[in-house]
Each structure stands twice: as C-alpha cells, then as structure tokens.
C-alpha cells in the first residue's frame, strides 16, 4: 500500500498559521526568557494567545475542544510549534501533558474525562506521568517496576518512589504506574492510577538538577507512601497498565521527534543566516566547502528524520503498533537532531556558544532525548531482536 505524505489542505493551513504564530508571538517571549519559563502567568498568556490564533490543542478530538488531528497531521503542526522551545507549551502540546491527553482520550471513563481530561485540554491544569523509578526499579525496562498498589477497602494503597517525573511541580494530578500483581521483572501485573496532587500520600521530594531546563514543571523525585486512592482512580483495567503504556508511548515518542525537529530547523536557520553574513579569509562562510558540507548534512538529517517520523505515523494511523517504525524513527531522530544543533553551533563559532543566540540552550535541551522515551541502545536492541526473530522464522 502506498504511503501518502501529502498533508490534508486543512492541516497544511493550520501548520502555516502555527508557524506564523510561533515566529511572531512565541519566539520573542522565548528570547526574553532564554528559552526557560517557570512563571505560570507567562504560560497562561501564551496559551491565551494560541487560542485567539486558533492553533490551540491541535491533537485533541473536536469533541474535547481540539482540532482532532491524526498522527500525520500532528507531524506537520507539531514541527512548526517546536520551532521554539515554548511553542509546544503555548499550544498545550508539551510533554507530558500531550501524551497524557492522548492516553486519557483512549482509556479513561466518561467521568474521568470530565474530571481530568477536560481541564487538562483547556490548559486549566497540568499533569505528570509517574513511571520511572530509581534503580533497580523501572526505567529502560518497565517490567522492573517496584512501586506496588495493594487492595484496601474501597480502593488501593500505593507505595513506592519515582524519579525524573517531568512536570510534577505544580501538576494537578499524576498518572502513576504501580504493580498490582507479580514481582519486578514480570512482563505484566501493572495498573495505572489517577492520583490527585493534594493526596497526602503523594509527596514531591526534590527537583533533580538536569542538563535540560525548558520542560515546564521540572524533573522531580516523587514519593508515594501510604497513598490511598478510591477504586474509581484506576485508569482502565487492573493489571493492564503495560498495555495502556504502549497506547501512550509509541505516539509520544513520535510527538517528541516532531517537536525536536522544529528546534533542528531553527538551529539550521540560525546557522545558515550566520554563514551568509559572516566573512572570513575573503569569502562568506556559506561559500566555504567545509561549511557547505555541514549545512548539507543538516538538511539530510532533517529530511531523513521527517520521513521516518511520517512513516511511523502512517503506521500508527492505520491502527498498527508501529513498534519497529517508532523505534527506528525515535533512535535516528534523537541522534540526528543532536547532530544538527551541534553543527549549527560549530558553524556559528563563538556566537554559537554565546548567550546572544539560543543554540547553547538548544544543545542542552536536545541531548537528553537520546535517553528519555527509551535510550538509543535499548531501541537498537529491540530493533535487532525483531529483525533476528523475523529471519529465524
């Protein structure tokens, strides 16, 4: 079956308006704050402007107030939003909220959608996704999950420790993964729970100092100690948490790729502008062969990443798991985006490592993408394992 990569006219028009909004409204705010915003008033103002521009919540179903884009449609719009570090925040498509919205749309009951999804889509609240744990707990191997939830009268008691929980500071609720059967290492037995932030059993322990800083709400260590939630806090079915995680993680990996592709393009634009204006040794940088090679390699990395993302999105839109396609796209894009930003810094020289442009900030932000949502090594192992299994058959 042929893969059609041409965006729908309505999607193309939304992407065009998103590009204009990000450049005219978001980038000036980003430059004032050096790419890092912790002020909720700034977040609220950016989202208000996005609503007025008609580009807010493009990924959510129309019935919930969004544009109802499929994965291929999101690819075009999210890349334009990602041209600024604050673009995803403005459109309410930043991690982890975007992935949580997708999960809640797919799995939550009607009552849960009204209580959690509706205010999340509207930007009235934020959320976090609590799965990753300190060693020897869940990380690259989710089956190592150690946080447990025990049945108690009228509900469940959750006990465990999570870390690198993005957006936890100020989140109204967490989606917490806890083991309800089996032992660490078992491939099943996890359940997802909706935990309100004011639950006394959920404690924000500390902010973890990390290389990246632009994801709103930081990366935190979170403790669940005697955290009791009612039966209706279960998201989906008991012991089906790993299956639901795949509903979230495959698309979330691709939306991360889309957003970071925007930053790769931004970095390339900064580097090309510098190469065209800067003269050395009697020539413009843009006329020197070594610089031309870096510019060309950047274009190749961006185009190849986009193609792999669209291929994976096409498979997801057809209803497949797209496990191999998303792993390939995530691994390549995470590394390609780093290469693009790194080359852009090199082309710009001393300007590139200064605070006069944001390339240094971009470099810090994109480096962790080779680790979160599955490190490149884990994806390569899974890719090879699938290929070897296919050959064996």
Automatic annotation (TrEMBL):
Single GO BP term: fatty acid beta-oxidation using acyl-CoA dehydrogenase
Acyl-CoA dehydrogenase/oxidase N-terminal domain residues: 13-124
Pfam families according to UniProt: Acyl-CoA_dh_1, Acyl-CoA_dh_M, Acyl-CoA_dh_N
One GO CC term on file: cytoplasm
Annotated GO MF terms: acyl-CoA dehydrogenase activity; flavin adenine dinucleotide binding
The Acyl-CoA oxidase/dehydrogenase middle domain, residue ranges: 128-208
Keywords recorded for this protein, A-Z: FAD, Flavoprotein, Oxidoreductase
Cofactor annotation: FAD
Xref: PROSITE patterns: ACYL_COA_DH_2
Organism superkingdom: Bacteria
CDD domains: ACAD
Domain Acyl-CoA dehydrogenase/oxidase C-terminal: 240-387
Self-association and partners: Homodimer.
Family the entry assigns: Belongs to the acyl-CoA dehydrogenase family.
Stored PANTHER family: ACYL-COA DEHYDROGENASE FAMILY MEMBER 11 (PTHR48083:SF13), MEDIUM-CHAIN SPECIFIC ACYL-COA DEHYDROGENASE, MITOCHONDRIAL-RELATED (PTHR48083)
Protein name per UniProt: Acyl-CoA dehydrogenase
Organism: Pseudonocardia kunmingensis
């Amino acid at each position: 079956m042929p893969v059609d990569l041409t965006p729908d006219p309505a999607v193309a028009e939304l992407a065009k308006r998103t590009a204009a909004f990000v450049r005219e409204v978001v980038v000036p705010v980003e430059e004032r704050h050096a790419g890092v915003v912790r002020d909720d008033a700034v977040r609220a103002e950016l989202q208000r402007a996005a609503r007025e521009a008609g580009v807010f919540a493009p990924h959510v179903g129309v019935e919930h107030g969004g544009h109802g884009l499929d994965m291929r449609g999101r690819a075009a719009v999210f890349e334009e939003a990602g041209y600024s570090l604050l673009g995803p925040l403005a459109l309410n498509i930043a991690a982890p909220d975007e992935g949580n919205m997708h999960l809640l749309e797919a799995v939550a009951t009607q009552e849960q959608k009204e209580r959690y999804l509706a205010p999340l889509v509207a930007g009235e609240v934020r959320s976090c996704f609590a799965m990753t744990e300190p060693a020897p707990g869940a990380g690259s191997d989710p089956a190592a999950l150690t946080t447990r939830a025990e049945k108690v009268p009228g509900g469940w008691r959750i006990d465990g420790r999570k870390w690198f929980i993005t957006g936890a500071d100020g989140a109204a609720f967490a989606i917490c993964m806890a083991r309800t059967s089996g032992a660490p290492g078992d491939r099943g037995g996890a359940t997802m729970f909706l935990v309100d932030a004011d639950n006394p059993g959920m404690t924000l322990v500390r902010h973890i100092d990390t290389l990246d800083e632009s994801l709103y709400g930081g990366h935190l260590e979170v403790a669940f100690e005697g955290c009791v939630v009612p039966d209706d806090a279960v998201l989906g079915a008991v012991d089906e948490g790993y299956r639901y995680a795949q509903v979230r993680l495959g698309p979330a990996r691709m939306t991360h790729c889309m957003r970071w592709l925007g930053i790769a393009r931004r970095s390339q634009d900064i580097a090309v502008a510098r190469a065209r204006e800067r003269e050395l040794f009697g020539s413009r940088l843009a006329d020197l062969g070594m610089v031309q090679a870096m510019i060309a390699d950047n274009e190749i990395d961006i185009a190849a990443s986009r193609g792999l993302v669209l291929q994976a999105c096409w498979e997801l839109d057809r209803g497949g798991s797209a496990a191999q396609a998303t792993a390939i796209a995530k691994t390549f894009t995470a590394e390609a985006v780093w290469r693009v930003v790194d080359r852009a810094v090199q082309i710009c020289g001393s300007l590139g490592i200064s605070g006069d442009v944001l390339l240094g900030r971009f470099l810090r932000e994109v480096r962790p993408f080779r680790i979160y949502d599955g490190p490149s090594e884990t994806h390569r192992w899974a890719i090879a394992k699938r290929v070897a299994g296919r050959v064996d058959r």
